[in-house]
Amino acid sequence: MPCQSAQHLPTKLLKHSLRTPHPGLSKALTFPSYSSSSSSSSHEIFKSGTKMGSYKLGDLSFYSLIENYASSFDFGSLEEVLLQMKRERRVFLEKNFIVVFKAYGKAHLPEKAVDLFHRMRREFQCRQTVKSFNSVLNVIVQEGLFSRALEFYYHVVASKSLNIHPNALTFNLLIKTMCKLGLVDQAVEVFREIPLRNCAPDAYTYSTLMHGLCKEGRIDEAVSLLDEMQIEGTFPNHVAFNVLISALCKEGDLARAAKLVDNMSLKGCAPNEVTYNALVHGLCLRGKLDKAMSLLNQMVMNKCMPNDVTFGTLINGFVKHGRASDGARVLVSLEERGHRGNEYIYSSLISGLFKERKFDHAMKLWKEMVEKGCQPNNVVYSALIDGLCREGKLDEARKVLFEMKNKGYLPNSFTYSSLMRGYFEVGDSHKAILVWKEMENNNCNHNEVSYSVFINGLCKNGKLMEALMVWKQMLSRGIKSDVVAYSSMIHGFCNANLVEQGLKLFHQMLCEPELQPDVITYNILLNAYCTQNSISRAIDILNIMLDQGCDPDFITCDIFLKTLRENVNPPQDGRDFLDELVIRLAKRQRIIGASKIIEVMLHKFLLPKASTWAVVVEQLCKPKNVQKAISECWSRLIG
Predict the structure, then answer these.
(1) Which of 39, 89, 42 is nearest to 61 (CA)?
(2) Angle between helices 308-320 and 324-336 (to 10 degrees)
(3) Which of 123, 127, 409, 467 is the most buried (most CB within 10 A)?
């Protein structure tokens, strides 16, 4: 007569038998000891069971083995347990497979989870339900394989043999996947179908779709979704509010963001660290740094402590607006509150101080960072090397690079590019070329930035042929050139009196939508033609410049003013030329550009005509342009 399976024993009796063998069962039911970390334990159990023949392991023992092997990621032994259970015709439970799916997810093995899902019924006679389906779908989504997740979803749902009906969790995962792939319209369609599938969207569903809409710049639709959410009786949580507040702050719409914060508080959902961090970020983007600082105090008053993200955002805001010294004071405040500045904060500050030519302050901060036990990493070392190169202290930069390597940090393309730029700026092109070769020897790939720096330096140092060779090498390797590299090559050709060659590259830029020439590129060509006294060709380039939506700047004006005074007979002061330029810009409704030209005219004591003033004022006073002009004035005052 076959031995009774442990699964069919009463629970109390089974638990007791695991601790103290029951007199009547001591011979019939024995459990060998095993270690979950040992891959050989399953072999021992199976071998001992076969030899003794007096018992048959219970299903619960197998389930325990599955959990233990899954938790230790011993998938080889796990497979053996499943196959042994199959041979002994044990009962498989869906929850056992879900444990394995989660383990595959943590081990970043999504395809293993998919394979096991399909084996469940075919090989182990365990019917899949929406629970196991969701578990595998979540593993794929968490791994970031969104296209694969969609493929798996449609395959399973379309399978009549599986007969799995998605539930609310499935739709949440599906909407997240579609939003990550940029298929927001399809995500909205799925969202609208949820009630038709006898499901109801929850706060997570709404938040996920709001996030997807915001990423696509469809903030108004996302805000409408918040209103709909409340009408439908779903209570908005922190995530929903914060998604919208963050998006509005990034857009610079701080007024609407503030209203949402008020709405959030009225709903009994107090702003948290994420909310305040979004507001601080928005204020920093708009240059309202003092208001961002005062928000810290409000944060503390509301018993919401600023964290590293808050301080990092604020410090980065000060650095970006040329106020690195104020950012350093924020760091002091951070440390007084018991926080420690991390390597990213120090990197931002050190880099910012160097850019503001505050060498001593930057070096003092570097020493303080090391003394406080904050170990510099690649980012901080690179920032220091870049700053030393900007100061022309190439020997010191080399020493820091040597220290960086000795401590096990590998220089990246930014590090080497800073060194190359530094050597080129002091006129030592030989050492710059050696740095370029050093990159290759250290297996540091040349990218578009390093190519731009190298080409620019070679052209500025009169090494046009070498620059041309590097240019061809870059293109042959499939690396796309950027505007800086193009402009550098055009400048090199123009300096070598090969303007037509430079013009060919210029026309190549015009054919590339992502590589439109900037004002620097135009000024290079304008200066080349004006130097050759080819004013008509220069005017042609100026016309292209205006047609392409690029506004002239102070340098553009100076190039033409110098030419009109020195190369035209009789000489002209350039008043009429600039006046006409203002009119052309105003008629194209490019008021900011027109205003800049007027600034140049006033600075040069070349007063615009009364009719020119009238055209500009008329454009400024158009309803659509008034707010734009006011905003521009404010941003200039703040900046």
Answers:
(1) 42
(2) 160
(3) 467
Q: 255, 317, 306, 320: which is closest to 281 by C-alpha?
A: 317
Q: Is the pLDDT of residue 13 over 50?
A: no
Alpha carbon distance 376, 67 (integer Å) = 42
pLDDT score at 301:
83
DSSP H helices, 413-549, are 413-425, 429-441, 448-460, 464-476, 483-495, 499-511, 519-531, 535-547
Which of 56-65, 130-139, 229-238, 413-422 has the weakest average pLDDT? 56-65
User: Which residue is it, tokens 């005062």?
Assistant: 294
Letter for the amino acid at 636? R
Separation CA 365–CA 346 (nearest Å)? 8
Domain boundaries, the chain: 466-550, 564-639
pLDDT band at 624 (very low <50, low <70, confident <90, very high): low
Local confidence band at 62 (pLDDT 50, 70, 90 cut-offs): confident
pLDDT at 633: 55
- For every residue of 129-173, which 3-state class applies, written as one string? CHHHHHHHHHHHHHCCCHHHHHHHHHHHHHCCCCCCCCCHHHHHH
Widest CA span of the chain, in angstroms?
Answer: 123
**What token pair was written down for 247?**
């998006």
Which single residue is written with the structure tokens 């983007």? 285
Express each pLDDT in 63-84 by its tens digit.
Answer: 888 999 999 999 999 999 999 9
Q: Which of 367, 321, 320 is nearest to 346 (CA)?
A: 367
Q: What share of the chain is helix, strand, coil (3-state, %, to 5)?
A: 70, 0, 30
Other CB atoms within 10 A of residue 289 CB:
21
Is the CB of residue 241 less than 8 Å from the CB of residue 272?
no
Higher pLDDT, 158 or 375: 158
Sequence-distant (6+) residues with CB within 8 A of 135 are 97, 98, 101, 102, 113
Cβ–Cβ under 8 Å, residues 564 and 570: no
pLDDT digits (tens, 9 = 90+) for 478-494: 988 899 999 999 999 99
389 by DSSP, 3-state: which? helix
* Tokens, residue 584: 């052309």
Q: Are the CB atoms for 598 and 619 separated by under 8 Å?
A: no
Banded pLDDT at 38 (limits 50, 70, 90):
very low
Cβ neighbours of 163 (radius 10 Å): 10
Q: Rounded to whole angstroms, how far apart are CA atoms 476 and 485? A: 15
Q: CA nearest 244: which of 225, 266, 231, 229?
A: 225
Give 159's contacts (C-beta < 8 A, 6+ positions apart).
Answer: none
> CA 522, CA 535: separation in Å to the nearest integer?
14
Q: Give every CB contact of residue 523 below 8 A, 6+ residues apart in sequence.
A: 553, 555, 556, 559
Provide the 8-state DSSP code for 609: P
CB-based contacts of 189: which residues, under 8 Å, 6+ apart?
none
Confidence of residue 632 (pLDDT cuts 50, 70, 90): low
pLDDT score at 623: 54
Say how far apart CA 414 and CA 277 lie, in whole Å.
Answer: 29
In the structure, what pLDDT confidence band is assigned to residue 47 with cuts at 50, 70 and 90?
very low
- For the chain, the straight-line distance linking the first and the last C-alpha, in angstroms and rounded, comes to 90
3-state secondary structure of 62: helix
